[in-house]
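Quick note —
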Amino acid sequence: MIDGEEKLGPMSVEEALALAEKRELDLVEVAPMEKPPVCKIMDYGTHLYKQKKKDKLNKKKVKKTETKTVRLSIRTDKHDLEVKAKQSRKFLEEKHLIKVVLIFKGREITHKDLGIEKMNYFYESLKDIAMMDQAPKPQGFQMIMILKPNK
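Predicted structure written out below.
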């Protein structure tokens, strides 16, 4: 039996309940699998409130990573690629994943080699800060590459 300020030795359930009732607190079983089971005399409502507050604070501290999408085309010019790479660099510095999607329009689908070349050029501009998580891979009328930040 453990109390907030003092440690109490083993006692019967009836004694522990009487002691908790006398102090106007609750008898809470903290380690039911132990022999004998370990209990605590505390205000259970306050304990739940503090636990929820602690969980909420821990949840706030967890950084969620997002996947940011950058759309390209075979006809995207070098300057536009540099602008998109600069924006992607900011995302990577914030530890987000970058999903680079190159969209083929019409007959451009026959020039997948140009798409891979464009994707590699984009990756080369971010190579110092990013690693390729997934190499350029065609999916229908799109080609997808995923970049993740270096650790």
